[in-house]
């Protein structure tokens, strides 16, 4: 495969004074093609996964469904105490919390608001200024203070919200009778022999940095609070092992995906990303009208893990710059088009 254009693409990205570090790793399913580019870090450097963590949470949900411990149609109230989630979803004066299902959370079709980006005093604006911790109960209070976006399961509606996956994390703990870390270990880490991938939950856990413009950000308290929606740490090398296993059926029966046919566009700030059953889907068109697909996930700190089935390419990496969270998605999209 001619990688000249990908090499130029990576050099152009890292020549920007906005990008302080980056790593890109591309492989085929067989591993007979491997392309690596590193800038001020390497494929074994720890990296924040942020929302790429959601793929790990998705894995546990499907593994539990495969074992019969949960059903995707189950109401979340079957697993979570009603007094804890009371008032979680209120739309136009009517409460719909009792109608929320695991499937709604997985597809981002719950209609629940987003606590991270919404509002002038969003959590994102706060975390840029200082480090802080928060609890699951705090998160639910923030959600309760905001308006739901639509009735759960409204056709052609999806709204990206971290609380969907943090609720899934709690359901995993109840269904597996374990902590989330133990579930990740059981269903992912031990199966793939991942030694440098973990969900941050202890003070002893190493937390990598990211950047906001020219400011290096160290936010260990916030990352440890981010839980099932964004608290993962990994390396590019191990993220590649995971994303291959995720799509190749090594972790769960991938026929679950064919049963979940919904593909809904997220809110405009996420364009052109659509959401499916626990992962993002992005359509990429070449100048010659050829269409390609990226499926996987990205994170607000710049991490990404995608698969392009048309070219049989797996792409993982990191562009740590939270002032431009779309940079990593653009890198993956352009790399797919450049690969030939």
Automatic annotation (TrEMBL):
Query: Signal sequence span per UniProt?
Result: none
Q: Do you know which Gene3D superfamilies this protein is assigned to?
A: DD-peptidase/beta-lactamase superfamily
Q: Which residues form the Beta-lactamase-related domain?
A: 44-316
Q: What is this protein called?
A: CubicO group peptidase (Beta-lactamase class C family)
Q: Which organism is it from?
A: Cytobacillus eiseniae
* InterPro entries assigned to the protein according to its UniProt record, in alphabetical order: Beta-lactam-related, Beta-lactam/transpept-like, Diverse_Enzym_Activities
Domain of life per record = Bacteria
Q: Which keywords fit this entry according to its UniProt record? A: Hydrolase
UniProt cross-references to Pfam families, sorted A to Z: Beta-lactamase
């Amino acid at each position: 495969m001619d990688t000249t254009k990908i090499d130029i693409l990576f050099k152009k990205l890292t020549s920007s004074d906005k990008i302080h570090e980056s790593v890109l790793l591309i492989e085929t399913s067989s591993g007979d093609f491997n392309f690596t580019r590193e800038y001020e870090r390497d494929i074994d450097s720890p990296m924040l996964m942020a929302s790429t963590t959601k793929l790990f949470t998705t894995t546990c949900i499907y593994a539990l469904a495969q074992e019969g411990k949960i059903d995707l149609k189950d109401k979340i109230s079957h697993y979570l105490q009603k007094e804890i989630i009371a008032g979680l979803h209120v739309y136009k004066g009517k409460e719909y919390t009792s109608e929320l299902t695991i499937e709604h959370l997985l597809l981002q079709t719950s209609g629940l608001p987003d606590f991270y980006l919404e509002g002038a005093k969003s959590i994102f604006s706060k975390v840029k200024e200082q480090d802080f911790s928060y609890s699951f109960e705090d998160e639910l209070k923030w959600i309760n203070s905001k308006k739901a976006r639509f009735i759960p399961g409204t056709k052609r509606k999806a709204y990206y919200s971290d609380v969907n996956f943090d609720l899934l994390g709690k359901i995993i703990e109840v269904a597996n009778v374990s902590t989330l870390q133990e579930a990740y270990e059981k269903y992912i880490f031990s199966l793939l022999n991942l030694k440098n991938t973990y969900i941050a939950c202890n003070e002893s856990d190493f937390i990598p940095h990211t950047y906001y413009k020219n400011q290096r950000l160290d936010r260990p308290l916030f990352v440890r609070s981010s839980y099932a929606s964004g608290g993962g740490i990994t390396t590019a090398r191990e993220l590649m092992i995971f994303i291959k296993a995720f799509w190749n059926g090594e972790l769960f029966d991938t026929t679950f995906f064919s049963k979940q046919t919904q593909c809904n566009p997220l809110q405009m700030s996420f364009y052109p990303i659509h959401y499916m059953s626990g992962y993002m889907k992005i359509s990429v068109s070449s100048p010659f009208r050829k269409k390609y697909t990226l499926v996987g996930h990205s994170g607000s700190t710049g991490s990404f893990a995608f698969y392009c089935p048309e070219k049989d390419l797996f792409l993982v990496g990191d562009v740590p710059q939270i002032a431009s969270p779309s940079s990593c998605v653009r890198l993956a999209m352009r790399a797919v088009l450049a690969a030939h």
